[in-house]
Amino acid sequence: MRIYDIIKKKRDNNELTKEEINFFVEQYSKGEIPDYQASALLMAIYLNKMNKQETVYLTEAMMNSGEVIDLSEIKGIKVDKHSTGGVGDKTTIALAPLVAACKAPVAKMSGRGLGHTGGTLDKLEAIPGFSIEMESDKFVDSVNKHKIAVCGQTASIAVADKKMYALRDVTATVDNISLIAASIMCKKLASGANAILLDVKTGDGAFMKTLDDSFELAKAMVDIGSGMNRETIGMITDMDEPLGFAVGNSLEVIEAIETLKGNGPKDFVHLCETLGAYMLVLAKVAKDYEEGILKIRHAISSGEALDKLKVFIENQGGDKRVIDDYSLLPKASKIVPIKSSKAGYISKIEAEEVGISAMILGAGRETKEDILDLSAGIVLEKKVGDYVREGDILAYMHFNKEEKFESAKERFIRAYSIVEAKVAPRKLIYGVVTKNEIKKF
């Protein structure tokens, strides 16, 4: 078999076989195929696309290019959640204890953030002492005993994906549904869960900017999961404005804790309830969505979810006193209000601009080498649909680096559109994708 023939076959818009895809992934991972030939094949795939079966084969080959985690010693149906990312997306910190409190095992491997704010691991590390490093035996024992553990992905998972993504990034071949879906799903499948819930963000602050693209990506990932015998559900959720009010690592931890205390922002609570209900259905601890919602709400109102968060933090070396004493979290030396320069209704908050503003303050990374300021970020006071008077506070900026403030402030103010006529808040959830149907709300 020759890579030249595989490139030519895809260039001519023909379907690749499982053997051809395996050959490419395996040989490229080993360094036997040079970057110039790999990039030629990726461009042919980008231009001519892959069908459903090719995408499954590619995902499986990428999954098998590294370590595949065996979670069979964990009792029950292990359910994982993946978000395609956004601004203020602290969902795992509230959702994992919530679902675990309802007796569904959550064995989650997460990543770090590159972009607007930190990833789940960065946010959890804002909790003093919290460790995301965990031996596999302790990981399994933690989920069996407490129903919850979150750790970092090992470098040996989906080795081909890291190499291919770096090449796609510099050859303008990132934005292809099959390649995106395979990249996300190979890591999820290698992480060992039995069932996967996908939170596919759509809008200004999301990777997928349009609803059509978001549904297409969700369908591709659900097809991959189903094609590899994992029950998979995709939710399309809004990221046209930040999720909740807090953007930034320790600030988002506080908001997640407040949510489990019953004081969460309306949109964030709605998202956690919805995702949680579907996770319980996937884990077979709720017979349907309606029962799932009731169980999730009870876990909050009874305090069981908050208790589970305490156990989770303590089990991973963290200081559980943060739940009642936020002063133990990293705290910025400067907290400055940002005021509205005009009166009217907020018609739009460009999530991406808010995210970049938080990143400038130190809450996110522009490069992998950047060191996060875990105390930096933004807490919104007003959201889309709210009325503001001139001089009203739109948000508070938390920061330590004064030289970054003016640049971040300018970017933040640009994110807000204020109009005279009242506008309706945006829809939060746009639909659900299963292997059998696409439901649009």
UniProtKB/TrEMBL annotation:
Subunit structure: Homodimer.
GO biological process, one term: pyrimidine nucleobase metabolic process
Pfam families: Glycos_trans_3N, Glycos_transf_3, PYNP_C
Superkingdom field: Bacteria
Gene Ontology MF annotations: 1,4-alpha-oligoglucan phosphorylase activity; deoxyuridine phosphorylase activity; thymidine phosphorylase activity; uridine phosphorylase activity
InterPro entries: Glycosyl_Trfase_fam3, Glycosyl_Trfase_fam3_N_dom, Glycosyl_Trfase_fam3_N_dom_sf, Nuc_phospho_transferase, PYNP-like_C_sf, PYNP_C, Pyrmidine_PPas_bac/euk, Pyrmidine_PPase_CS
Family per similarity comment: Belongs to the thymidine/pyrimidine-nucleoside phosphorylase family.
Taxonomic placement: Bacteria, Bacillati, Bacillota, Clostridia, Peptostreptococcales
Species for this entry: Romboutsia maritimum
GO cellular component, one term: cytosol
The name this protein goes by in its record: Pyrimidine-nucleoside phosphorylase
Catalytic activity reported: thymidine + phosphate = 2-deoxy-alpha-D-ribose 1-phosphate + thymine; 2'-deoxyuridine + phosphate = 2-deoxy-alpha-D-ribose 1-phosphate + uracil; uridine + phosphate = alpha-D-ribose 1-phosphate + uracil
